[in-house]
Amino acid sequence: MIIQPGIDRLGRAVKAGDQVRLFAIRPSILKRLATDEHAYVSSMLGQTMEVVDVSETGLVWVSLTWVRQNGSSEIHVIAVDAEAIELIA
Q1: CA-wise closest residue to 28 among 74, 69, 78, 85
Q2: Global confidence as pTM
Q3: Greatest extent of the chain over all pairs of C-alpha atoms, in Å
Q4: Residues 3-39 pLDDT 10s
Q5: Out of 16, 19, 25, 46, which could bridge 88 as a Cys pair, Cβ 3.0 to 4.6 Å?
Q6: Is residue 54 a contact partner of residue 15, using CB atoms and an 8 Å limit?
Q7: Number of structural domains, the chain?
Q8: What angle do CA 57, 26, 7 make, to 5 degrees?
Q9: 52-85 burial by CB neighbour count: b if 16+ within 10 A, else e?
């Protein structure tokens, strides 16, 4: 198997630990979320976040974290398409 690098929407290599700006979330992900989770995840559009992993096939995974009104934290890790992210230099 050939290992594929992760790339952003400009074709730049992306690796774990890099910071990226999120421009889109797959509709299939949003569709599965409860109403409050949908709002939190959608609020991350345009935000900068860390790449937590890049699979052997080049799929980039980012971590979305937010604090709920009651003070607890919630974390979601989602796969994103290359067109959906841009590396922050």
Answers
A1: 78
A2: 0.81
A3: 46
A4: 788 999 999 999 999 999 999 888 887 788 777 777 7
A5: 19
A6: yes
A7: 1
A8: 35
A9: eebeeeeebbbebeeeeeeeeeeebebebebebb
